[in-house]
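Appendix B. Raw example, untouched.
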Amino acid sequence: MLSLHFIKLHLHQNFKFNEKYRANYLFIATYMYHRLWSNQYSDLIYKRR
């Protein structure tokens, strides 16, 4: 996943000075990525039926 890598790089550069918020943004980014992935996965299962 290229987009996730770029998101991590972008967040690391922008929030390097503020470790407190960087962790929160990374958590939100990974959470949204996992939700998107699970939605696509469930769509595949639903279409296969």
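End of appendix B.
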